[in-house]
Design goal:
Blueprint (H helix, E strand, L loop, with lengths): L2 H17 L2 E2 H8 L3 H13 L3 E4 L2 E4 L15 H14 L3 E7 L2 E8 L14 E3 L4 H9 L20 H14 L2 E4 L6 E10 L2 E11 L5 H24 L1
Antiparallel strand pairs: 1-3, 2-3, 4-5, 4-9, 5-6, 7-8, 8-9
Helix pairs in contact: 1-3, 4-7, 5-6
Length: 238
């Protein structure tokens, strides 16, 4: 799946998440895309369970409370930067932002031959059980939200005092780690995307522990930080 295809798929998902269930003709006219392209991508998103098809209409499996106009989402340059990371490590890469005290994944660049990576698009997570959430809180200006006591595994941080200690470690190291806190067997990393020394988004990746060993963390984090700085520069220019 190319970055162009991902962009078109995201536009379809975003349109449906904001405007509600719509037929094929309405989507293609609103987005000015060929009918064949909209049909192919919409049907793929249905197979991935990102969209549902009810009669002649498609609907998103998640709903935005407001449109998210974020410079990082629509820049061709940003796709190219993130694709370099995917090619380098054969890991997916995500962009997350804070939205209503949750992490919302607003961009995904999947691995080749792994279109299921795109199902992360639109996913929401409590901040205290995800690397991306902890990263955004650690490097942002938002106050600590109410911590989720239901989601995550037994490794998740659910006490405010412990989370504050973890946030201090994250600020010191420059990255956040989710070590099986959300899903057993899954390790996640995240670094901030900063504008004027404040996180406006974050860049993350995840993989089974066997594919993202501790000895690889330093190399992956260094690359994420490099690409994050490049994305920050793009955001300051736009």
């Amino acid at each position: 799946m190319t970055s162009t295809t991902v962009t078109k798929a995201y536009r379809i998902l975003e349109y449906l998440s904001i405007n509600g269930p719509s037929p094929l003709q309405q989507i293609m006219e609103a987005l000015d895309l060929p009918k064949a392209t909209v049909y192919r991508l919409a049907e793929t998103l249905v197979e991935l369970e990102v969209l549902q098809k009810v009669g002649p209409q498609y609907r998103a499996n998640w709903q935005k409370k407001r449109p998210l106009h974020h410079p990082i989402m629509n820049s061709w340059r940003s796709f190219g930067i993130m694709q370099k990371f995917v090619n380098q490590f054969n890991l997916p890469i995500y962009v997350g932002i804070l939205d209503d005290d949750e992490v919302l994944i607003v961009q995904v660049v999947p691995r080749s031959q792994h279109p299921d990576d795109s199902t992360k698009l639109g996913e929401r997570l409590p901040v205290n059980i995800s690397a991306m959430g902890k990263c955004l809180i650690a490097f942002g200006k938002d106050p600590l939200p109410e911590l989720s006591q239901q989601c995550g595994t037994s490794y998740a941080i659910r006490e405010e005092a412990l989370l504050k200690q973890n946030l201090a470690v994250i600020r010191h190291k420059g990255y956040a780690l989710d070590d099986e806190e959300n899903v057993i067997g899954l390790r996640c990393l995240a670094v901030p995307i900063c504008v004027q020394n404040q996180a406006v988004a974050c860049l993350g990746t995840s993989a089974p522990i066997k594919n993202l060993s501790r000895r690889k963390i330093s190399q992956i984090v260094n690359s994420l930080k490099t690409y994050s700085r490049q994305l920050s520069n793009i955001m300051m220019e736009e």
